[in-house]
Design goal:
Elements (H helix, E strand, L loop, with lengths): L2 E7 L4 E7 L16 E4 L5 E2 L2 H33 L5 H7 L12 H35 L5 H6 L16 E2 L5 H4 L9 H23 L4 H6 L15 H27 L4 E5 L1 H4 L4
Antiparallel strand pairs: 1-2, 3-6, 4-5
Helix pairs in contact: 1-2, 1-3, 1-8, 2-3, 3-6, 6-8
Keywords: Membrane, Transmembrane, Transmembrane helix
Organism: Cetraspora pellucida
Protein name: 20095_t:CDS:1
Length: about 280
């Protein structure tokens, strides 16, 4: 019988205790390798820790706060100010018509960027919320505690921070051969949606930069359109910050999707026993 070392806390000391692990197919398997590596087997649901939750909350809402509200509102305000006869309605709905061909910058590109940032975020939130709702009913149908997993895979995962630790199990981290959910639940819809949103907005930001931003009149008026200042000045910093966050989030979503696929049916390396780290006794 293979065993692995686990720990049980008491009020006075930490005592390692040998515990046997039994797989679903009645075969015994070790979770601690000979060189001290500890693995989480696929059929164990991943428990979302506080640090993981806080990290995701900060990154996620930072992206929408900076990109949608800071850049989106900034572009809307400056696009309206750059065309003296325009209103917010014109910027949003008439900027791409023949009436508003502006020499200084691409009025249409600015409008599309606003729609991509703000309108795309609204579409993303609504769509992924509906997917999370469908996931909730699918989990309930299979008899699982559905609310935490559905919230964790929705834009409202901030609420998950207030869940007690024993409720923070992500059912979707378990291979589907064990939980038996509908196949669409394994398609990473929330991550693919966020990656697609980031990709579209990245293209729109680049397009706006190449065609001239809504701040061009201010840039030219302050003599910031020559030399390196043409590419780096205070008016362009929100665009570059948005690009950084979009590209970073897009990369993380793609890497997570690939990593999840690779780890779905095999043990995940999650730690190492402290004695095996020491090189010298």
């Amino acid at each position: 019988m293979n065993t692995y070392e686990t720990g049980q806390f008491s009020s006075d000391f930490f005592q390692p205790t040998p515990v046997a692990f039994k797989q679903a197919d009645n075969e015994m398997q070790t979770l601690l390798s000979s060189d001290g590596w500890f693995f989480r087997l696929p059929e164990y649901g991943h428990v979302i820790t506080n640090s993981e939750m806080v990290s995701r909350i900060v990154q996620y809402y930072e992206m929408f706060a900076v990109n949608v509200f800071l850049l989106g509102y900034n572009v809307l305000k400056n696009a309206k100010a750059a065309v003296s006869t325009s209103t917010y309605d014109i910027v949003l709905f008439d900027a791409c018509t023949d009436r508003f061909v502006i020499e200084q910058f691409d009025f249409c590109a600015a409008s599309r960027l606003i729609w991509g940032l703000i309108g795309g975020a609204i579409v993303y939130f609504v769509f992924t919320s509906l997917v999370a709702l469908a996931l909730y009913f699918e989990l309930r149908r299979k008899g699982y505690d559905a609310l935490f997993t559905a919230l964790w895979h929705s834009p409202m995962f901030l609420v998950c921070y207030f869940y007690p630790p024993n409720k923070r199990v992500d059912v979707l981290s378990i291979p589907n051969k064990y939980v038996g959910l509908s196949l669409w639940t394994r398609s990473q819809i929330h991550r693919i949606s966020l990656a697609l949103y980031c990709l579209i907005c990245t293209v729109l930001v680049f397009n706006s930069l190449f065609r001239g931003t809504a701040e061009n009149s201010k840039i030219e008026g302050e003599g910031l359109d020559t030399g390196y200042k043409k590419y780096y000045n205070p008016y362009l910093i929100p665009y570059y910050l948005a690009l950084y966050i979009f590209v970073k989030t897009l990369s993380e979503m793609l890497i997570t999707i690939i990593q999840d696929k690779n780890l779905r049916n095999r043990p995940e390396r999650i730690g190492r026993y402290y004695l095996s780290i020491k090189q010298y006794e």
